[in-house]
Amino acid sequence: MNARTGPRPVGALLLCRADPAAVRPPAQLLREQLLLAPAGTDWSVLVPEGKPWLHGGEPVDRVVTGWATALAVSAATWPVLALWWDADGAGFTLAAGFRRTVGYTWLTDGTPVGEDEAMRTFAARLALDPVLDLQALGALTEPDAEADADTRLLGLVAVLARVGLRLPTGLTPGESADRLRSVATAQGAEQLEWSGWRDAVRAELDAMEGGRLGPYLRGPRARLIGAAQLGAGLPLLAWGLTRRSGGWTAAGALLVAHGALGLAYDRLRGA
């Protein structure tokens, strides 16, 4: 168990199963202070620069779950894993397209408080080995007096290393948000800046057209996806604004923006 003194740090990491070029446009639409870096084969990591959970009165897990959900629905083809930790424990949320998010939580001392089914769903959605990897994940759901919450997250990251995840040196779950930001900056992580809607739209359209789904972004299927994103984003945006929830407001705004872009794609590119 980690011999940490003083109050537990609060922080988060967003792991995207895509390269930085694919992650950059939708992440910029979140309009949050984020650092972007490669994290292995077909993986990227987003490191929050700001700490919205300190200012909006919203817990870190809820903030990053909103971000992960918006990114995953926006991306459609790659999942997003949010790792978080605070004074009460640690956990993760996996978002994949329009499917229900799945998550797991450990108390500070490492006591599991999630459901075993969540780990099985987690393994299936990330196409992990149904025997070896699932066995390793299962161990994270069992009592272990030597494993605290941070150790559990490190165990999760170790399992994902088998499918290509390689976090940059020093980006360790359980560290403070300030420490993670400093490490990421020192290693040359890209600072994502909001450059306005016009540039964001152009970057998003370029990314969409150049990606694997480029040939399929026009026609009935594209319009259906765009409409679904708008349909999910508008009530989510209203809900977030009503409750002054920064994470869910950002998620709703991203879904609305991405849905609108999808519906406008033919008009802007097809002439």
Describe the fold and architecture:
- The chain has 271 residues and is α+β, with helices and mostly antiparallel strands.
- It folds into 2 domains: 11-190, no CATH class; 196-269.
- Helices cover 48% and strands 14% of the residues.
- The chain contains 10 helices and 7 strands.
- Strands 6-5-4-1-3-2-7 form a 7-stranded antiparallel β-sheet, with helices on both faces.
- A hairpin with a 6-residue loop joins strand 5 (89-95) and strand 6 (102-107).
- Helix 1 runs antiparallel to helix 8, helix 3 packs parallel to helix 10 (246-269) and helix 9 (220-242) packs antiparallel against helix 10.
- The longest helix is centred in the C-terminal third of the chain and has 24 residues, at 246-269.
- The chain starts with 10 loop residues before the first strand and ends with a helix.
Straight-line distance between termini: 61 Å
* Major sheet details: 7 strands, antiparallel
SSE order: EHEEHHEEEHHHHEHHH
What's the pLDDT, averaged over the residues? 83
Structural class designation: alpha+beta
Instruction: Quickly count the helices.
Output: 10
Oligomeric assembly: single chain
Total number of beta strands: 7
Radius of gyration: 18 Å
Strand content: 5-15%
**Structural shape:** globular
State the helical fraction. Answer: 40-55%
Strand order of the largest sheet: 6-5-4-1-3-2-7
Low-confidence runs of at least 5 consecutive residues: 210-216
Count of spatially separate domains = 2
